[in-house]
Amino acid sequence: MAEAEDALLCLSGIHTHIGRYHILHGVDLAVRRGRLTVLLGRNGAGKTTTLRTILGLWRASAGSIRFDGAALEGLATPDIVRRGIAYVPETMGIFTQLTVRENMLLATGAGGFDEPRLEWILRLFPAIGEKWRVPAGALSGGQKQMLAIARAIVEERRLLVVDEPTKGLAPVMIEHLIEAFRKLKETATTILLVEQNFHMAKSLGDDAAVMDDGRIVHTADMAALAEDEATQQRLLGLSLASHQ
């Protein structure tokens, strides 16, 4: 894995408390520029808390978060987002009463849509264009996830942070998402992805970091981890080979 100086995003010794609970216990994580880093781990390992701490939704109680060398810890979430970071939460966070178009428009700047970029996004997610005037609440689960990702990238971002985009989706929809992320990677967008679907992780990941009990316990190239069934079993309790 990358050293800190090679990273667009670098977490060093991050501790996060939520109420009286100590969730993160000194997280060290480097996310390399132009690559997709997959954050893996069992349920409850601290993956979502790590993402929320990066975005300032939870406050780190110790440690540092650097984005392109500048400190993020202590900044409000809107200020973090304005630095070029987009977040797609596990809940997707779409506005169900608004149309697909209105959801997308809310994520743009005051000038509205960048038409060439919007056309590219609609090629990436054709279903979004087909449902352009439909209330977002009427979309299928997969279409809602596509909308959440499309909204996050409606303007160019330097870092895309995505939490379990395939959760609850049918295999055919997962394949659509994999293809969309492949095309997004071609733009050299840096991506930090929490994902439990190991077929998707193996298909897309450049780098892998494994969490356990609020710490990063293993880092590797994703391809190397995919070949190391003993490490998969030891750290994740399962084999990637069983999730093809």
Notes on the structure:
The protein is of the alpha/beta class and 244 residues long. 34% of the residues lie in helices and 27% in strands. The chain has helices at residues 47-54, 77-81, 100-106, 115-124, 126-130, 141-152, 171-185, 198-204, 222-227, 229-236; strands spanning 7-18, 21-32, 36-41, 60-67, 70-71, 85-88, 159-163, 190-194, 207-212, 215-221. The model has no long low-confidence stretch (mean pLDDT 92).
Detail the topology: elements first, then pairings:
Layout: E1 7-18, E2 21-32, E3 36-41, H1 47-54, E4 60-67, E5 70-71, H2 77-81, E6 85-88, H3 100-106, H4 115-124, H5 126-130, H6 141-152, E7 159-163, H7 171-185, E8 190-194, H8 198-204, E9 207-212, E10 215-221, H9 222-227, H10 229-236
Parallel strand pairs: 3-8, 3-9, 6-7, 7-8
Antiparallel strand pairs: 1-2, 1-4, 4-5, 9-10
